[in-house]
Amino acid sequence: MIKLSGFILIGLLAGYFSGLVGIGGGVIIVPALVLLYGISQPLSQGTTLAMLLPPIGIMAVLAYHEKGLVDWKIAGLLCLGFLIGSPLGAKLAVGLQPEILKKIFAVSLMLISLKMLLSK
Questions:
Q1: In angstroms, rounded to a whole number, what is the distance separating the alpha carbons of residues 59 and 41?
Q2: Per-residue pLDDT for the chain (120 aa), expressed as one digit of tens each?
């Protein structure tokens, strides 16, 4: 029961931060599954992607849309790119050793964080 409620709490935090700053699956859920539950990096990534299949972000999107803060053209183009890029990335990811994938993920987060922190 504690494990189930932990997953719900992780989902709640990811949903909150997704609505707040546009992060969730990759930045919150994947590390939580790996670090708190010992789930492998590839399984954590695949599980998080499966979670994204239903329209879980619709309420946050509607809140942004109501304030005129959604560019649907850009969103559509990003979606198109995502549809092309995600299977390519997934194909590479499932062929890598879990430890290598975890290191790539960690370095990616560090580089993104540094870029955002140091940019004007």
A1: 28
A2: 778 889 989 888 888 777 676 677 788 888 889 999 999 888 888 888 878 776 667 888 888 899 998 889 988 888 888 889 889 989 999 999 999 999 998 998 899 899 989 988
Tokens of 20: 């707040």
Tell me the two tokens of residue 40: 């492998």
Q: How far is CA 83 from CA 36, 50, 76, 80, 86, in A?
A: 30, 14, 10, 5, 6
**Full domain range(s) for residue 37:** 2-118
DSSP assignment letter at 29: I
Give me the number of domains the chain comprises: 1
Identity at 96, one-letter amino acid code? L
Q: What is the pTM of this model?
A: 0.70
